[in-house]
């Protein structure tokens, strides 16, 4: 293949049609910028595609992301408008720089959760989770796994529409054709704090349930306001999961002893399941606790799927899910920009902010770690 400077892209417009306004984030495979369409005056997000090894052409990871986003057209999934490029320059003459252009979303969920001035009502939490499950249902129905579900990858428009974003780790999946023909996907996916136990133990034959574990972690964050299991490494993450969800054994995770990392990890024994017990300090709604319990199941086969979650009593009991525009109206400034400004003021500021202490209870003193 010749160098990319000589390649013509007749269907790929130049990125100069957009005016860059500032960096707002870092995706799985590139930087993200806020920009304005010079002609339409609409706001967009530009995701820069990293071209670290241009001799191999356009990155396969970016091609996969583009193909998946072209397939997944849904209100609760981020919309890819087009792919643009910049021309090679004197300093960068062997390659064009490519950008994925998305509809702009003013906020991400991690940013909202880190802002203690943003107060969520139960009805608003229901609306946010309903939209997440709607996006997951459409994605999984189209045989796509996200593989990086976390609060930072949930974007929210100023009108209150949630959109699942960052498909840099996503892939198509198929259901195994039999026990003798399992899938062999990589298990080095999903941000550690949102990674389910089967992946931590080396499972490679997995499906939509890995995204539902992440959705459960996100749902708990709606009340705790920060990630509920903040492991320092895979071993620590498994320990935190065991302390919250109970011991990982062949009874709670069938065939786990056959997974490649099972013998290399120390799994705490005789740990009782405490999902409801620990989360009820924050979550006062019984239906919410029940749905969280069903999402954070150690056995992926028992983990509730997105369509079952959508018909759970949590969404159909008063208060019903409500419009989010009223919640977001006082927060006109983008949470991306707000967070970046804070980081400049205080470089020590962590990504999701410190966990608030749980309210005082009769059991005060038992909740000094970040496993709730």
Automatic annotation (TrEMBL):
<keyword id="KW-0723">Serine/threonine-protein kinase</keyword>
<feature type="domain" description="Protein kinase">
    <location>
        <begin position="18"/>
        <end position="315"/>
    </location>
</feature>
<dbReference type="GO" id="GO:0005524">
    <property type="term" value="F:ATP binding"/>
</dbReference>
<comment type="similarity">
    <text>Belongs to the protein kinase superfamily. CMGC Ser/Thr protein kinase family. CDC2/CDKX subfamily.</text>
</comment>
<dbReference type="InterPro" id="IPR000719">
    <property type="entry name" value="Prot_kinase_dom"/>
</dbReference>
<feature type="region of interest" description="Disordered">
    <location>
        <begin position="344"/>
        <end position="372"/>
    </location>
</feature>
<dbReference type="GO" id="GO:0005634">
    <property type="term" value="C:nucleus"/>
</dbReference>
<keyword id="KW-0418">Kinase</keyword>
<dbReference type="InterPro" id="IPR017441">
    <property type="entry name" value="Protein_kinase_ATP_BS"/>
</dbReference>
<dbReference type="InterPro" id="IPR011009">
    <property type="entry name" value="Kinase-like_dom_sf"/>
</dbReference>
<keyword id="KW-0067">ATP-binding</keyword>
<feature type="binding site">
    <location>
        <position position="47"/>
    </location>
    <ligand>
        <name>ATP</name>
    </ligand>
</feature>
<dbReference type="GO" id="GO:0008353">
    <property type="term" value="F:RNA polymerase II CTD heptapeptide repeat kinase activity"/>
</dbReference>
<keyword id="KW-0547">Nucleotide-binding</keyword>
<keyword id="KW-0804">Transcription</keyword>
<dbReference type="GO" id="GO:0004693">
    <property type="term" value="F:cyclin-dependent protein serine/threonine kinase activity"/>
</dbReference>
<dbReference type="InterPro" id="IPR008271">
    <property type="entry name" value="Ser/Thr_kinase_AS"/>
</dbReference>
<protein>
    <recommendedName>
        <fullName>Protein kinase domain-containing protein</fullName>
    </recommendedName>
</protein>
<dbReference type="Pfam" id="PF00069">
    <property type="entry name" value="Pkinase"/>
</dbReference>
<keyword id="KW-0808">Transferase</keyword>
<keyword id="KW-0805">Transcription regulation</keyword>
<dbReference type="InterPro" id="IPR050108">
    <property type="entry name" value="CDK"/>
</dbReference>
<keyword id="KW-0539">Nucleus</keyword>
């Amino acid at each position: 293949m010749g160098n990319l400077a000589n390649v013509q892209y007749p269907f790929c417009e130049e990125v100069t049609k957009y005016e860059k306004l500032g960096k707002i984030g870092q995706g799985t495979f590139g930087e993200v910028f806020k920009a304005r369409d010079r002609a339409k005056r609409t706001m967009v997000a530009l995701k820069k595609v990293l071209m670290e090894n241009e001799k191999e052409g356009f990155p396969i990871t970016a091609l996969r992301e583009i193909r998946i986003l072209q397939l997944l057209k849904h209100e609760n999934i981020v919309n890819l408008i087009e792919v643009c490029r910049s021309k090679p320059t004197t300093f960068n003459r062997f390659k064009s720089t490519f950008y994925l252009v998305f509809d702009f979303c003013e906020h991400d969920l991690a940013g909202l959760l880190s802002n203690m001035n943003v107060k969520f009502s139960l009805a608003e939490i229901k609306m946010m989770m309903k939209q997440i499950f709607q996006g997951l249902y459409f994605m999984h129905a189209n045989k796509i796994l996200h593989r990086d579900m976390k609060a930072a990858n949930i974007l929210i428009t100023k009108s209150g529409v949630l959109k699942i974003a960052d498909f840099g780790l996503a892939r198509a999946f198929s259901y195994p054709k039999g026990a003798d023909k399992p899938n062999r996907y990589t298990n080095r996916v999903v941000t550690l704090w949102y990674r389910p136990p089967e992946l931590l133990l080396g499972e490679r034959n997995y499906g939509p349930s890995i995204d539902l574990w992440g959705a459960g972690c996100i749902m708990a964050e709606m009340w705790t306001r920060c990630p509920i299991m903040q492991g320092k490494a895979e071993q620590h993450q498994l320990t935190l999961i065991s302390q919250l969800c109970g011991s990982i054994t062949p009874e709670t995770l069938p065939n786990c002893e056959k997974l490649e990392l099972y013998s290399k990890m120390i799994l705490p024994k005789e740990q009782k399941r405490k999902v409801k017990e620990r989360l009820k300090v924050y979550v006062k709604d019984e239906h919410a606790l029940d749905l969280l319990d069903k999402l954070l199941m150690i056995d992926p086969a028992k983990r509730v799927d997105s369509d079952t979650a959508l018909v759970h009593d949590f969404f159909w009991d008063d208060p019903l899910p409500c419009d989010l525009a009223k919640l977001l109206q006082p927060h006109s400034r983008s949470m991306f920009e707000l967070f970046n400004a804070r980081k400049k003021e205080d470089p020590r500021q962590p990504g999701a902010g410190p966990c608030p202490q749980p309210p005082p209870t009769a059991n005060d003193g038992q909740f000094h770690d970040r496993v709730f």
